[in-house]
Design goal:
alpha+beta; 300 residues; Helicase, Ruva Protein, domain 3; single chain; elongated; N-terminal domain of MutM-like DNA repair proteins; 2 domains
């Protein structure tokens, strides 16, 4: 699933292409007839297809933002009305949002194509497993308002207070979108490794030094991943169809059985919160303290 760095990269590569552009048309791909809507669209669209078309066609894209793992298109509707209406896109596990120079579907999993007033520009939404969601919203939904703060924006004081109130294991807490929005399996594993903390260590037991180390390593890991345009593990590409390269810099994620770059111990995989969790048993001992925290990658 695309996580914060991947979604941020998509927004940054998409913004200069579609911001300020007008949406001229909506095409639901795979239709067998004029009034037939593909089942994939019915699963992906929260709004009815008719409502989606009527609202989006003719609207201007004023700007794009990221909210957690959501891509948010801020729209100005026909007639010049300005408001809080926005198109929220969640890519699910395998969603792709790419700008193409053709209106023809590139794959059989392309479900939706938006055309713009820029010649030769079409926005394709493709999703193999169809777990993504597209929805029109005024402001944010109750569900979105319940999400935690952004890990790149939260202050250390707030981060520390939120940790002290929780009894969960660190890995499961970092995956909880109500604690921090945008974190996922990749960057939880990588951040905990860089902080020298075991994924099963309980959040409420961290001392101030450990908490500060974890706070800094989360932000450093996310910012570094954004610099490398995210991690392309399977389906992820940016808005121009280009893969990221941060997977070449993973310390532990999906490196089970391989030697740790820092100490040479073999990386282990366990289950935490029903998710595969990768860590170094030596660098991230259950009793490790922040004095073992580190952020650089040792030479291979």
């Amino acid at each position: 699933m695309p996580e914060l760095p991947e979604v941020e990269t998509i927004v940054r590569t998409l913004r200069p292409l579609v911001a300020g552009r007008r949406i001229l048309g909506v095409e639901f791909c795979g239709a067998e007839g004029k009034d037939w809507i593909p089942p994939a669209i019915l699963r992906i669209l929260v709004d009815t297809p008719q409502e989606f078309c009527q609202t989006v066609c003719g609207a201007w894209v004023e700007d794009l933002d990221r909210y957690g793992k959501n891509i948010v298109f801020h729209l100005r509707l026909r007639g010049g009305k300005r408001g809080s209406l926005a198109l929220w896109v969640h890519l699910g596990m395998t969603g792709r949002l790419t700008c193409e120079n053709t209106a023809e579907p590139r794959t059989k999993h392309t479900h939706l194509i938006l055309s713009f007033d820029e010649p030769g520009l079409w926005l394709h939404y493709a999703d193999i497993r169809q777990f993504g969601r597209l929805r029109l919203m005024n402001g944010s939904s109750d569900e979105e308002r319940k999400l935690g703060p952004d890990p790149l924006e939260i202050s250390f004081q707030e981060f520390r207070e939120r940790l002290r109130r929780r009894q969960a294991m660190l890995k499961s807490l970092l995956l909880d979108q109500h604690f921090l929005r945008g974190m996922g399996n990749i960057y939880a594993d990588e951040s905990l490794f860089c902080a020298g903390l075991h994924p099963r260590f309980h959040a409420a037991r961290l001392n101030r030094k450990q908490t500060l180390t974890l706070y800094r390593k989360i932000q450093k890991t996310l910012r570094t991943a954004i610099q490398f345009r995210g991690s392309s593990i399977s389906d992820y590409v940016d808005a121009q169809g280009l893969p990221g390269s941060f997977q070449m810099h993973h310390h532990v994620y999906r490196r089970t059985g391989q030697p740790c770059f820092r100490c040479g111990t073999r990386i282990r995989k366990i289950q935490v919160a029903s998710r595969s969790t990768h860590f170094c048993p030596r660098c991230q001992r259950a009793t490790a303290t922040a004095r073992n925290g580190f952020g650089g990658r040792a030479s291979q």
